[in-house]
# Entry
Amino acid sequence: MKLKYLLPIAFIALFFSCSTDDDDNTTIVNEVEGLELIQTIVNGNETIELYNEKGLFETGYNMISLRIKDNTTDSYIEDATLSWMPMMQMPTMEHSSPKSTISKALGKDTVYEGFIIYQMTNTDGSGWSLTLNYNIDGTDYSVTETISVMQYENQNTATFMGSDGTNYILALIEPKDPSIAVNEMKVGLFKMENMMTFPVVEDYTIALDPRMPGMGNHTSPNNTDLTYNNADNFYYADLSLTMTGYWKLNLKLMNTNDDVLKGEDVTDENEASSLYLELEF
# Structure
């Protein structure tokens, strides 16, 4: 009789032991691993977290990851929709900047992402604010917060007026980690339609002539001009870097009729184009 009752008790003990082991082995996934927190913005019952690889905003192209935490449940929202509006406050005016839509990060449940291109800043990083609009379960929310945007050490973005009277913004995206090789170069090209709207410029050509001013202004072989890719709305080229140091990426912007809108050829008499970006590694 004792054995009859001992067997079920032993089975139950084994079941709960296995269940406990399974619970202990549950893996908690950190969906922002490898990213640094830039800033948190508290809005009532929600906290918006902003991340990127450096943990700060800089002039030029910024890829940004976002999460929304429900402060009541201490859990992250998986099904929100978001939009944003960066704004630069100047003494007599204000303007926005080129930006993408915000979408769910590939393979992530709680992370959303998009890019903003800050074309300028003040010397102390001040002047910018960021408005975030989001919808959770059919309810709209909005919050605006001051942000700091630091000046990048080299010229990774250029703002200029073309010969067609249009204001353009050009931003370097790749290479982020240049090497002595033929690197993939990637840039974004936008025009200022008005102070708040900066659409992508499609199907132009950007001639590329990289030079090393500190080394006799020599160039490099196997470069190609930047051409538009309609799959992601950016421009791509091969950029050949033959040694470490400071490189000036001389550029010349041409429209679909091959009219030169900005920039000049580099010659013995003209050491640099008026349109350029910079790399140093």
Summary: The helical segments are 2-24. The chain is about 10% helix and 45% strand. The CA atoms of residues 110 and 277 lie 35 Å apart.
